[in-house]
Amino acid sequence: MTYQPPFTLTPAIANRCARIAERIGRLSVLEEQAHSLRLRRLNRIRSIHGSLAIEGNTLSEEQITALLDGKRVLAPPREVQEAHNAIATYERLQRWLPHREADLLDAHRCLMTGLLPDAGHYRRGGVGVMAGSQVLHMAPPASRVPSLMRQLLQWTAQTDAHPLVASSVFHYEFEFIHPFADGNGRMGRLWQTLLLSKWLALFAYLPVESMVHRHQRDYYDAIRQSTAEADAAAFVDFMLGMILEAVDAVAEVPGVSEPTPHVTPQVTPHVSTNATSPVERLLDALQGDMSRDTLMSRLGLSDRKSFTERYLRPALQQGLIEMTRPDAPRSRLQRYRRSSRKPAQT
């Protein structure tokens, strides 16, 4: 194997892989729960909605559910066609092999039929990778697309990189090559789901696409950063974060989650289960300066609004924690730490 996509295995990537592996065990109950089919259906709807919404489709989860049930929906015909195609494509997901070029082209044909004249064929012209009206980069010439895609698919089949990493690298390289005239974002996310599902079947139903939609700007920023650095590490780290959020979101569904297993201190220090209130749990998890996302990850939470209202804001109001950048509360570099001042007595 001569082709090697450029990516660096950073400590952050290794830590995210470890966290996902530690938490994935709790989701094995999905295979045994009596209502797992309902949960799989719900997560599949969220995946389809998220992936389409990233591309500007305005259909709601309720409308996609109606289409899945065979009902008519009043919406722009193209958006309805996109949803029908996506439903059919995700239903066929397990029929395809991720390293087969013919399967990749077949999936694109299924996803883009009625939307693109040359669905199922590589592009024949130049194209730029866009984020809204902004050009992230100009994709390689169309003449190079077939060979680049074959090299990437061969690497996917032969690499010994962990599936979490390999699927994310594939996703980034796919978007960089931009092999089709349209539908590249949807196909990249779909194929990463396929790669992960061949590793663990439950990934076919995890709503990773829904998490990417929530962090759409960061998704494009990660692509931009990896392109600028000629290294997929930034994008891999981002996608692992989305996978971690998806795992946590499903694990929090009532009746599905199991008690959180003990976490080895070398990876993520154990958070005491003796803490009874949200604020106490937050304080128990907080060590040094920590970001919002890190705190949520340590607490096994994915709902940012709930975390802010139940954990973060009360702790700040009680003077138990403080911001490292109090003059810029919305800064992306914001961190939280135990308060250096004595909290007011009540």
CATH topology of the largest domain: Fic-like fold
Strand content: under 5%
Task: Report the helical percentage.
Answer: 40-55%
Query: How many H/I helices?
Result: 14
Q: Return the CATH architecture of the largest domain.
A: Orthogonal Bundle
Main pleated sheet = 2 strands, antiparallel
How many extended strands?
4
Q: What are the secondary-structure elements, in order, as H or E? A: HHHHHEEHHHHHHHHHEE
User: What is the top-level CATH class of the largest domain?
Assistant: Mainly Alpha
Low-pLDDT ranges: 254-275
Counted up, domains total 2
Q: Tell me the span between the first and last alpha carbons.
A: 67 Å
Mean pLDDT: 84
Described by the principal axes of the CA atoms, the overall outline is globular
Task: Give me the secondary-structure category.
Answer: mainly alpha
Could you state the CATH homologous superfamily of the largest domain? Answer: Fido-like domain
Radius of gyration: 21 Å
Question: Spatial order of the strands in the main sheet?
Answer: 1-2
